[in-house]
Amino acid sequence: MKMMLFAVLALYPMMVFGRVPHSRKVLHEELNEIPPPEKYDGDVLSDNSKDFQMQMKDWVKVSLNTPKVMAVQVGDRIEIECEALGGPKPTLAWNKGLHARPIIYEETNNVNGMSLGRIISRLRFDCIQPEDEGMYSCSAASGAEFATSHHTMIFVHNKNGSQSNNCKSENRHRPHIDQWTPILMEVIGNDITLQCISSGNPIPEVFWLDKDEKLVENGADSRFKILETGDLLIRKLRWSDMGSYTCIAQNAAGQAKETSFVYPMSEWIYSSGVQE
Question: 262 with 184: CB under 8 angstroms?
Fold first, then answer.
C-alpha cells in the first residue's frame, strides 16, 4: 500500500507540471514546491492496515495561462488557455465580464474513493472582432468547491474602423480540441469519463484510441463507449485500464489529437464532508 501511495504522489507533479519527475530526489524537490491544496485535510487512519484509509475534502485550483492584458487587431487569431486541477475531477467554464457566471455542478459527498483530475480548456478566436473585446476569466468546480482565475483583458484595435473578414489564420477550418482531461485518477470499479470537446468546419468526427493504440468501437466492448459529445466513457474501471487514451478529431481539412492518462487506484475512503 505504501507503494500505491508513492505512485499517487509521483503522478501529482505530472498533473501540475505536465510531466513525470526523472528521479525520487527530483520528485521530493518538486513536491516541496507545490503548495498544498487549501481544502486538503488528510488523515491516515491506519498505516499498517490492509484497509488503508484517507479522508480528503473537495478542493480545486484554477489558473489562466495568458497575460493579464492582450492587444490584438481585428481579424487576428488568438487563443487563451485555462487549467483546473482538483478532487474530484473538476468542471470548467469560461466567463466574460467582471463577474463570473456560476457553474452548475453537483456535490459528490457520496463518492467512494479518491478522485483527482486535471482539465485544460482553450478559448479560441479564429477571426476576432470588436465585439469580442472584454475581460475574460475561467471558473472551475470540484464537488462543493469553486474557484475563479485572474482576469485577462483583451483589447481589439480596428485599423479600418469596420469589421474585417480577412482572417490571418490559414487553418481556421481545421479541427481543434478545445477541452480535454490530461490526467484522471479514479478508484477501481467506478465509471469514468474522459472529456474531449472539439470544434472545426465542417464539424469534426471524434475517434478514440485505447491504451494499446487500438481504435475504440462502440459495441465491441460494453465497458467502453464514445458518447455523442465526443467524450469516452469507461465503465467499472479496472487496474488493467491504466494507460494513455488518445482523442482524435478529424474532418476534411485535417485532424487534431490530445492524450488522457488514466490511473486506477485501489479503494480508499474519500469524504468531502470532513469538518474543520
Answer: yes
Q: Report residue 132: phi and psi, to 5°.
A: -85, -10
Higher pLDDT, 156 or 56: 156
Q: Which one, of 83, 260, 247, lies nearest residue 185 by Cα?
A: 260
CB 143 within 8 A of CB 109: yes
Range of the domain at 260: 171-267
* Largest Cα–Cα separation, the chain: 72
Cis? peptide before 202, omega within 30° of 0? yes
Q: Which amino acid is at 148?
A: T
The angle, 0 to 180 degrees and rounded to 10, between the axes of the packed helices 24-33 and 2-17 is 60
What does the pLDDT look like over 251-267, one tens digit per residue?
998 999 999 999 998 86
**Does 202 reside within a domain?**
yes
* Residue 258 located in a structural domain: yes
What pLDDT is recorded for position 165? 55
Collect all residues with Cβ–Cβ distance below 8 Å to 185 and sequence separation of at least 6: 8, 11, 114, 115, 116, 117, 263, 264, 265
- For residues 177 and 253, membership in a common domain is answered with yes
Model pTM greater than 0.85?
A: no
DSSP 31: H
